Structure formats: C-alpha cells, structure tokens
Amino acid sequence: MEVSLGALPAATPPTARLVLEWTLRMVAMAVLVLALVRLIRPVEEPPTQHASGAGVPAALARWTASPEVRSAHVTVSGVPGDTLRDWMRALRGAGTALGYTQSGAEPVAVSAEPLADPAGGVRVWAAASTPVALADAVGLLDTLRPSGAGAALAARSVASPVTAAVPGVSARAGIADSLVLRPVLVLGSAGWEGKFAIAALEERGWTVVARLSVAPGVAVDQGSVGAIDTARYAAVVALDTAARPFAARIAAYVRSGGGLVLAPPAATVPALGALAPAQPSAPDRGDAGLLAGADARRGLPLGALRALRADAVATERRGDAVAVAARREQMGRVVLHGYDETWRWRMQGGAGAPFAHREWWAGLVAAAAYAPAEARPAVARDASMNDAPVARFVDVLGASSPEPRDAAAPRRTPVPWWLLFAVAAVALLGEWASRRLRGAR
Amino acid sequence: MVTGERAAAEAARRGEFTFCTVQYESGDWDSAPLVAPNIIDTIARYTAIPVTPTGVIAPLGGDALHRYPLAYLTGHLPVRFTEAERRNLKRYVERGGLLFVDDHNHDVDGMFHKTATEELTRAVGPLADLPNDHELYRAFFTFADGPPTTAHEMNGWGDNLVHEHLQATLVDGRIGVLYSSKDYSSEWNYHPDSKRFLSVDNTRFAVNLVVYALTR
C-alpha cells in the first residue's frame, strides 16, 4: 500500500490564534513606531515652577535637588538677601531657566568716603528717586532729597556703617578707607593772599610747602619744594602768575592724578588756564560792609567764572554767577575760584571769620587733593555691606521678567522607555512562541 | 600819608601792600612821619612786591586797622590804650596781623617803653626776646647778628645801650607783636632821596620785616 503524504490535508491553525499573532506583531510594530517618534520629536519641556514670598527658600532647595525642574520663576517683594540672590544665580548657572519678578524695591545707593582733610570728616553720597534717610551706626544723620546725580552730605564725624533708607530698601556702606595726606604746595607772590591761605591750611592741619616770590630770582621758601609729583604733594595751590615757571610740571602732575587749586590770577597763565574749568572775568568791587555779615563771601570782590567747560561742575554760586568750579583733567582734579583777596574775609570778617575762611580753603583743597586710600581690611571684608541692593540684585540676575502664563497647564508625562521596551519584547516573544508551538517557523 | 576810607578802598582794590601807621588815642603816634615813605621806597627799590605809593593811617581802635595786616606804631610819650584799642589789637593779632612797635626814645627807662610794653602785655601777652637766629633776620637780607644797630644806639643818645635783641609776642609760632628799643623810627625818619648819601642802606631791615609779614 502506498501512502502519499502529499495527499494529507494541511493542518490549519485556528483563526483566533492567527489573529492573536497578528495583533502581537502589530503591537510590537506600534511600540517601535512610538519609540521612533519619541526619538525624533523634541522632548516636551516640563512646566515652569513658581514660588513667591516666604516660600522661596524652600522652593529653591527643592528645585536644586530636582533635575527635572528646567524652568522656574520667583516673585519677590523688596530685595532678597545676598544668600537667596546668590542661590538663584547658582541655580541659573546650573542650567535652570530662572526668572524673577520684583516689586516694592525702590533703587537706592549710598557711598561714604573720607574727606581729604586733616581735620577728618566723611562725605556721604546717596542716590535715590525719593527722599532718603541717612544714618550711621549712632543714629539718624539727615534726610536728603537727591536729584540728578544724587545728593551729598559732609559730616565731621560719622560712625561706620552708613545706611541710606527708602521705603522697603536700605543700602549700607562702610567707610572702608583712610587717606594718606601728603603736603600741599602753595605757589605765588609774597602777599597777604598767600600768607593767609597758608595760615588757613596750616591751622587746618595741612603740612604746607610754599614758594613765594619776592623779587625777580628771589623767593621765600617754606620747606623744600623739590619735584612736583603725587608722591610728594596732595595738591598744588597756584595763587598768581608766580606759578608760571612751574606750569608745565603742574600740568603733568595733574594729569597723573594730582590736585590743583587755582586762584583767578593763576588761571591767566596759559598752561594753567588750559586745565581750568572756566575763565575768570574781571572782579567786581565787592562790598566790604558785608564781610562782617553772615554771608561774608558776598563782601569779597568776585570775578564771575565764565565759559564753563562742558566737563566742569559749578560747586559754588553767588546769585547767578559761578564763584567756584571744578573739573577732571585725566587722572587729576582742578578747582578754580573767582574771589579776589579772600584774606580780607579772615581779617575783616565777623567773629567766626577765621574759622569760616579756614573751612573754605580746606574745602577747596579737599575737593582737588590727591589722597590715596589706605585699605582697612577688617571693614572691607564685612559681607553685610550692600551699598546698592537693587542695583546689585539686577546686576547679578539681570532685569526682572513677567511671570510666565503656563502655571495652570496640565503636565503630560511621556511613556517611559522601559515600558516601551517591555511591551515590545512581550509582544514579539508571545508572537514568536505562538508560531513555534503550532509548528510554523 | 593818606587817611580815610576812600584811600584804603583804593589800595585794597589794587591788591597792593600798603604801609600803615597806627594812630592811638594817647601819646604822639605821628612822631616819625617820614618812616612810611622811606620804607615804601625801600620796598619798591629791592623787591617786586606791589606797594601803594603812599602810606595810610589807621586808628588802633577801628575796623580799618584790619585792612593792613602789618602796622607800625611809634611814639615818645606815655602810652595808654583805651579798652577798645586793646580789644581791637588783640583781635588783630589773633587773626594774623603783625604790629611793629618801635620806641622812638631808645630808652629802656623811658616812659614810652614802660607804658607801651605794659599795654602790649595787657592786650596781647608778654614780650620775650626774639632769638637773633630767627627767620625774620633771613627773610630777605641776612642779618647774621640779629637786628641791625642804629646810629642812635651808638652815639650815646637815650639809654646809651646797644640792644642785642628785639622782643616779640608769638601767636601760633608767628610774630604777632614785634617790639624794638632800637629807635628805628629815628634811624629811618628821613627823606628817601637821602639814601644816596649812605654807603649801606640802613632801611634794609624794613624789607625783612615786610617780607616776613607777607610770607609767614
């Protein structure tokens, strides 16, 4: 008997099994397509995190520990402390897009610097757009109303630190330096103006070196004049044309940082006039009767300063006339006054005239003097000082930005890679096992 | 010599050195009228200091004195300052003025010397010998031996002494009052034209005095 195997009917798998295998293949293919799409499509950014007020420190701690936080926004009132500011900066440096919105922070800045004056004193500068209360470690100093470049207050004694406060914000600055005060050089002709200018500065505490011309080739020296440079002199006071032989050296001295005080006759020397902030005009006659009054300088003859240079600042006026002006010449400073024979103020003035005359001359020299700072490290290291809180905050973190609007958007979590792999693997293994068990390849 | 507000104002306006003779209530304050023109001539002769060609007279008790930070006072007769004069002199010296007082008698026992030194002591403070190496004696000309002697010290007039020192009251290291018993008022009280008859100008010390006053 011959049996023909080819005549046996073929085994037909159940339809349901075929459907299952086909489904498993489709699932595996779908997972692979999904994985491919996920690889090609950009990853969806996680939503921006938000924090405000007292919750900011805790939020920063949380965001720092969570690598999934890619974007965050902080809403602050006033100026956060240096710790929070630096933390925000560090978080931003670590890759988190951190923005902030600030409210209630009025910009204010304060600076305190010692005066170039042997009698001591501190000048406090404040900048703000609203009235600012100045205080030192002892108590309130004054309230200033800054305008334009700000406002300044000179005080004989100030206890560090200095605080400038506007509503919601306080700026603090230490008096970080003391000054090295070198002698003042006075150049002029023998006369009452020189004698009493020197007397005023010496009584103030300055060491004065002077050369006063008496006759051609003859001068009375007080001290040894020597080279005119910033290593030797804090300032040069040129009273008249007797300073002419020194003019070129004075100009070089000023450009290297020295201070120059010019009386009107000295400004007629071309090399010195080129440094001057203005040109003095012919003096009026003054009114000696006013010398004994409260505003004694009104009694002095004044040659109003005219043709003020663009970079000059008028520091004293008599009515509309500029009486004293100052400007920078490269590294140095130049002060020009327009008064004639200021010594009469001291001799003919009222009871306080010698003191006032001394103060005024000391002020002129202090405004120009080169006085290198001597750092006091104990104060300089004080981390609690922040002389411009709002400005420094913005300097570190940039300008504030509006709060993003995606705060309420639902977060869509992508399917994890491991799940995709598992589904694909199970589907393929199931399909393969089913085929093998029924004898198919 | 010119008095009055107008002359003073004119001198002030020009910014010149103006020689001032002090007028006081007692005594003969104007006993040496040629000293002023002679010293003015000397200053103009030796220095470039701008100087008013005529001197002025300022009352010791008046505000005008303060326009002239160097002033000259002399006389023969007893001196009694009024209270206003004392007060004004004290203020003048404290503010930086220098009063040069010269005994026109050259007589340490004379009434001017006794009364003037007493008044100066009351007004400003005691006088003390000024060392002969003081910078006053080197301010322009050099007087190595201190104040130059005068013919009146040498010729037996007055106390017949050569005074080795001037006296002074110092204020903050500067001379506030300079007192002389050497009788420069007689020595310098001649017309400036007569200098040509001198082998050595005897007013040269006045230059030191003015230069010192203008520079110290």
The low-confidence runs of chain B, each spanning 5 or more residues with pLDDT under 50, are: none
Helix content of chain B: 25-40%
Most extensive chain-chain interface = A-B, 31 and 28 residues
| Percentage of residues in helical conformation of chain A | 25-40%
Structural class of chain A: alpha/beta
Instruction: Name the overall outline of chain A.
Output: rod-shaped
Strand adjacency order, main sheet of chain B: 2-1-3-4-7-6-5
Mind telling me the C-alpha Rg of chain A? 40 Å
SSE order and pairing:
The complex is a heterodimer of chains A (441) and B (216).
Chain A: H1 15-40, E1 49-52, H2 56-65, E2 71-77, H3 82-93, E3 97-103, E4 108-114, E5 122-128, E6 132-135, E7 140-144, E8 151-155, E9 162-166, E10 169-173, E11 177-179, E12 184-189, H4 192-204, E13 208-215, E14 218-222, E15 235-238, H5 247-255, E16 259-262, H6 270-273, E17 279-280, E18 305-306, E19 313-318, E20 321-329, E21 332-337, H7 343-348, H8 353-368, E22 373-375, H9 377-380, H10 389-397, H11 417-437
Parallel strand pairs in A: 1-2, 2-3, 12-13, 12-15, 15-16, 16-21
Antiparallel strand pairs in A: 4-5, 5-8, 6-7, 6-9, 9-10, 11-22, 13-14, 17-18, 19-20, 20-21
Helix pairs in contact in A: 1-11, 2-3, 4-8
Chain B: H1 5-14, E1 20-23, H2 35-46, E2 56-59, E3 70-75, H3 83-94, E4 98-103, H4 111-123, E5 128-129, H5 151-154, E6 167-171, E7 174-180, H6 184-187, H7 204-215
Parallel strand pairs in B: 1-2, 1-3, 3-4, 4-7
Antiparallel strand pairs in B: 5-6, 6-7
Helix pairs in contact in B: 2-7, 3-4
Write a structural description.
- The complex is a heterodimer of chains A (441) and B (216).
- Chain A is of the alpha/beta class.
- Chain A is 29% helix and 26% strand.
- Chain A is built from eleven helices and 22 strands.
- The longest helix of chain A has 26 residues, at 15-40.
- Chain B has a seven-stranded mixed sheet with strand order 2-1-3-4-7-6-5.
- In chain B, strand 1 (20-23), helix 2 and strand 2 (56-59) form a beta-alpha-beta unit.
- In chain B, helix 2 (35-46) crosses helix 7.
- Chains A and B meet through helix 4, strand 13, strand 14 and helix 7 of A and helix 1 and helix 7 of B.
